[in-house]
Amino acid sequence: MDIAKIASEVLNLEADELRRQAGLVGSEFQKAVNLIYSCKGKLIVTGVGKSGHIGAKIAATLASTGTPSFFIHPTEAMHGDLGMIGSDDAVLAISYSGESAELLAILPHIKRRDIKIIGISKSGSSLANLSDANLNIDIEREACPIGAAPTVSTTLTLALGDALAVCLMKLRDFKSEDFAAFHPGGSLGKRLYLKVKDTMRKSNLPIAKDDISLKSAITAMSEGRLGSVILVDNDGKLSGILSDGDLRRALEQDSFDINSKAIEFATKNPKTLDNPDMLAYDAFRLIEEYKIQILIIQKDQKPIGLLHIHDLTSLGL
After folding, report:
1. pLDDT tens digits for 264-307?
2. Could you tell me which residues come within 8 angstroms of residue 249 by beta carbon, excluding any fewer than 6 positions away?
3. Residues 253-274, buried b or exposed e (16+ Cβ, 10 A)?
4. Which of 40, 63, 80, 261 has its CA 20 to 30 A from that of 296?
5. pLDDT value, residue 36
6. How many Cα atoms sit within 13 Å of 136 on the Cβ side?
7. Could you tell me the fold of the domain covering 3-174?
């Protein structure tokens, strides 16, 4: 049995169906988007079985991209959860066959309240006929060899949900800042809202005068626990940075003297940043590009903070 060949056939079949369906998108899809966009309340997503699992994911995607949405199981709806659907809401009902008994049972109660229904089902199905707009999922065949397990149909349904979400994002002018506001705890959100000034170290910085000896610099480096000491002149302006790497290279020199001035062995033009409003993720990329451990944040050539690569990685950036 050629497993790789079977897997490729499944992927190609699903990809071909997505491409075919892309050419069929038209006025009904536009109508569905308009119904959701004009909805003053929430979009309630519902479905059973595999369609329900796909529906829950679609609801989560919509909710995180500017369209208030949540999932309700049709059975739970029949036992009280219909009360969660308000008169200003709309419903996205999903069923490949369009004949799921549990789903069809709740639709008359929803329509009686003049709540708009967007269906995702086969054309001509009961669900399609009850819907104000229906996104047809008339696939050529499932990838399942016995034609029983939803495969191509669920992939198409999920993709249609993504297409709805992206169209609505465009209509709402949903920006990265909005996405970050909905995802403050995740790494994606942090990349979009955390700024350098929010993450940089501002106090107890390892700063010393540039005329100190290597011996004193080593002490300051140890106390700072960052493996480096920032050297400044009498006006507090940046002169250089002495890292543990600089110190090791100094030790390798025959002329090494612990009482020599630290500035003689320091990096005179360290990488700096003058914009504390830069996104921390962008600063992290600079640190990686420069292949450094510490990025000094300065104002008027005076150090006001620093970013250490370990601080940024610990934030999940």
Report:
1. 888 888 888 898 888 888 888 888 888 888 889 999 999 998 88
2. 265
3. eeeeeeebbbbbbbeeebeebe
4. 261
5. 96
6. 17
7. Rossmann fold (3.40.50)
Domain residue ranges in the chain: 3-174, 196-314
Q: What is the pLDDT of residues 155-210, one digit of tens each?
A: 999 999 999 999 999 999 887 666 666 655 555 556 666 788 888 888 888 888 98
For residue 111, give both structure tokens.
Answer: 């329509």
Residue 250 CB partners (closer than 8 Å, separation 6+): 214, 256, 260, 265
**pLDDT band with cut points at 50, 70 and 90 for residue 133:** very high
Lowest mean pLDDT among 19-33, 182-196, 215-229: 182-196
One-letter-per-residue 3-state SS of 15-30: HHHHHHHHCCCCHHHH
- Counting beta carbons within 10 angstroms of the beta carbon of residue 291, is it exposed (0 to 12), middle (13 to 18) or buried (19 or more)? exposed
| The pLDDT of residue 31 is above 90 | yes
Are 187 and 178 a contacting pair, CB within 8 Å?
no
By the 8 A CB rule, do 121 and 137 touch? yes
DSSP structural state of residue 147: S
Instruction: Confirm if 264 and 211 have CB atoms less than 8 A apart.
Output: no
- Under 8 Å between Cβ of 47 and 54: yes
Q: What are residue 181's DSSP bridge partners?
A: none
What is the C-alpha to C-alpha distance for residues 45 and 198, in angstroms, rounded to an integer?
38
Output the pTM of the full model: 0.65
> Under CATH, to which class is 196-314 assigned?
alpha beta
Question: What is the predicted pLDDT for the residue at 136?
Answer: 94
Angle 117-121-127 from CA coordinates, rounded to 5°: 50
Closest CA to 307 of 298, 40, 143: 298
- Coil, strand or helix at 271: coil
Let me know: does 234 contact 209? Beta carbons within 8 Å.
Answer: yes
